[in-house]
Amino acid sequence: MSKVLIIGCGGVASVAIHKCCQNSDVFEEICIASRTKSKCDALKEKLEGTTKTKITTRQVDADKVDELIALIREVQPDLVMNIALPYQDLTIMDACLACGVNYMDTANYEPEDLNDPEWRAQYEKRCKEQGFSAYFDYSYQWAYKEKFEKAGLTALLGSGFDPGVTQAYCAYAQKHLFDQIDTIDILDCNGGDHGYPFATNFNPEINLREVSAPGSYWENGHWVEIPAMSIKREYNFDQVGQKDMYLLHHEEIESLAKNIPGVQRIRFFMTFGQSYLTHMKCLENVGMLSTEPIEFEGQQIVPIQFLKALLPDPATLGPRTVGKTNIGCIFTGKKDGQQKTAYIYNVCDHQECYAEVGSQAISYTTGVPAMIGAMMLLTGKWNKPGVYTVEEFDPDPYMDALNQWGLPWQICDHPALVD
Ligand code: NDP
C-alpha cells in the first residue's frame, strides 16, 4: 500500500495513472502534479468513482528544484514517478535526493536548451569520448549513481517500452534463453494510422529531435555513427505486415552494451512511412526543427516549439488511430553450444487501448510499463540503492506483470533476421 507522486499529466502519464487506478492494492494514493493543473483535475474527475485509489492534484514547475522539494515534503510519497519530459529528469532526481525518496522515469535526460554555450562545450567533448552525437544519453543520470547509493535510494531509469520493456526482454533472453547473446536488433513498428497528413505519436519536440539526429549502433565494442535515416530495411511484422524501417540511435543500446556481456552488435530500427519522412525533411529544410530562438514580430520564438503548437496534440490521436504496434527484440546467440535465434515481441491494438484508457497504443505501451516499474519498486521486488536501467533487475516479475496488465508478449524461435 503506497503513496506515489506522479509528475506530468500528458499522453503517457494519463495511461500510467489509469493503470495505477486499476491497481489500487499497490497504488493506494496518488498525487498528480503538473505544469497545467487543470489537466490533472480533469483526469482526477474522470477517474474518481471508478477506483479505490485516492487521487489529489497539485501545480508544479518541475524545472524548479525548490518547488519540487516543497511539493515532495508536503505529499510525503514513497516514490516519485517522473512522466513529464526528459528535460526535468535531473531537477526531479535532485529533489528526490534532497527528500530521501525513490525515483523513476521513462526517458533519459536531455537538455532543453541546446544552445547554452557551457552545455555545448561539454557536449562536444562527450561526443568525442562516446563516439555518438545524440543529445540524450545516460551519462548525466549515471553520474548520480553514488549519490543514490549513499542515500540508500533507488532510481529506475527508462521504464517505458523502448527503453524499458525492450531491456526486460533482453534480461529475460539472457536469463532463460541464451548462454551467450551475440546480436540484438530492437524493432519498433507502429502500423497505426491516425488519418492526419503529419502528426507525432508522442511529444513532438522530443520525437522530432530523436528521429532527425544521426543514427548509430554498437558493434564489436564501439559505436558506429551514420547520417540520419541512411540505413533502411524492410521487415514483415506479425499482425502488421511489411514495413520500411530505419536505423536510429536509441538510449537503451548504451546501457545494453554495458550490461549484456559479450554482445557483439546492438541495433535499433523504427518504422516510418514515406509521407512522415517527406514532411520531416521539408520541416527540417525550412528550419522548423531548429531549437535556436528567433525574433518574430518583436517576440522570441523557438521554431520547434512553435511547430509543436501547430501539430495535433498526441493525447488527442486516440479516437482516430487504427491499426497495431509491434515492438520487440530479435536475438542471435548460443545455447548449450548450439546457434540459436529468438524474437520476443508484443502486439498492441490502438483501438483496444482507446477503449480501455482513452489513449492510442504509443502512450499505452509506455504508460503501462511506467506503472509496472513503479510497482516493482513499491512492492520491493526491485530494490537496490543506486541508479539502474531495467535490464539490471530480475526480469521475471516484470515480464509476468506485462502479461497481467495489458502488454502480453510472445516468443518466436525462428524469426526472419534483419541483414
Ligand atoms: P506530453 O507532452 O504529452 O506530456 C508531458 C507532460 O509533462 C505534460 O503534462 C506537461 O505539462 C508536463 N510538463 C512539461 N514540462 C513540465 C514542467 N516544467 N513542470 C511540470 N510539468 C511539466 O509527453 P508524453 O506523455 O508524450 O511523454 C512523456 C514522457 O514519456 C517523455 O519523457 C517521453 O520522452 C517519454 N516517452 C517514453 C517512451 C518509451 O517508450 N520509453 C515512448 C514515448 C514517450 P503541460 O500539460 O503543461 O504541457
Give a topology summary:
Layout: E1 2-7, H1 11-22, E2 27-34, H2 37-47, E3 54-59, H3 65-75, E4 79-82, H4 89-99, E5 102-105, H5 117-130, H6 139-142, H7 145-151, E6 154-157, H8 165-177, E7 180-190, H9 204-212, E8 215-219, E9 222-226, E10 232-237, E11 241-247, H10 251-259, E12 265-271, H11 274-285, E13 294-296, E14 299-301, H12 303-310, E15 324-335, E16 338-349, H13 350-357, H14 361-378, E17 386-389, H15 395-404, E18 409-412
Parallel strand pairs: 1-2, 1-4, 2-3, 4-5, 5-6, 6-17, 7-12
Antiparallel strand pairs: 7-15, 8-9, 8-12, 10-11, 11-12, 13-14, 15-16, 16-18
The chain binds NADPH dihydro-nicotinamide-adenine-dinucleotide phosphate.
Residues 8-13, 34-36, 39, 60-63, 83-86, 88, 106-107, 158, 160-164, 202-203, 206, 314-315, 366 line the site of NADPH dihydro-nicotinamide-adenine-dinucleotide phosphate (NDP).
Describe the structure.
The protein is of the alpha/beta class and 419 residues long. The protein has two domains: 2-157, Rossmann fold (3-Layer(aba) Sandwich), CATH 3.40.50.720; 165-359, Dihydrodipicolinate Reductase, domain 2. Helices cover 37% and strands 26% of the residues. It is built from 15 helices and 18 strands. It has helices spanning 11-22, 37-47, 65-75, 89-99, 117-130, 139-142, 145-151, 165-177, 204-212, 251-259, 274-285, 303-310, 350-357, 361-378, 395-404; strands at 2-7, 27-34, 54-59, 79-82, 102-105, 154-157, 180-190, 215-219, 222-226, 232-237, 241-247, 265-271, 294-296, 299-301, 324-335, 338-349, 386-389, 409-412. The strands form three sheets. Strands 7, 8, 9, 10, 11, 12, 15, 16 and 18 form a nine-stranded mixed sheet that branches. Helix 8 (165-177) packs across helix 15. The protein is globular and about 55 Å long. The N and C termini lie far apart (48 Å). 48% of the residues are buried. The model has no long low-confidence stretch (mean pLDDT 95). The chain binds NADPH dihydro-nicotinamide-adenine-dinucleotide phosphate. The site of NADPH dihydro-nicotinamide-adenine-dinucleotide phosphate has 33 residues, from helix 1.
